[in-house]
Amino acid sequence: MIFSPGVEAPVAKLLRCVDLWSGVRGLSGGMRPIRQLALVEDKPDAPETVVLGDISSIFEQVLGHPVRINDHTDIVEDLGMDSLGVMNFVMAIEDFYDISIPLDRIAQIQTVSDLIHAVEDLRSGTPE
Fold first, then answer.
1. 50 vs 45: CA distance, rounded Å
2. What is the DSSP string of 30-60?
3. Helices assigned H by DSSP within 1-128
4. pLDDT digits 0-9 by tens, 49-68
5. Which of 88, 99, 98, 94 is nearest to 60 (CA)?
6. Among 6, 25, 96, 118, which residue has the fewest nearby CB atoms (within 10 Å)?
């Protein structure tokens, strides 16, 4: 489909099942949900963006000063972290996400992008 300059492409819409609270009282006397289909915009979640923000905050806590990071930031070189700082950072990431990063996986992480993918894999239960 071709669009003229200045004309936005249509937003993808999806039907999703949502719970609406009715004024009808259930047997227990409380309000009861009614499931209904609703047309909603399809806004893809950006888990990498969320994880990047979380990682940036954790870096700031561990390093004690604000940092600017992106996917290509080298954790040791660009942020000047020593081995103790890296281990403190890894423990903070593990605590924050309630995951355990195996030592062999830590050795494979060089950039923030590598870290994001490792965190997402471990959170989803997907092996490397």
1. 9
2. SEEEEEEEEEEE-----HHHHHHHHHHHHHH
3. 47-63, 83-97, 103-108, 112-124
4. 788 889 999 999 999 999 99
5. 88
6. 6
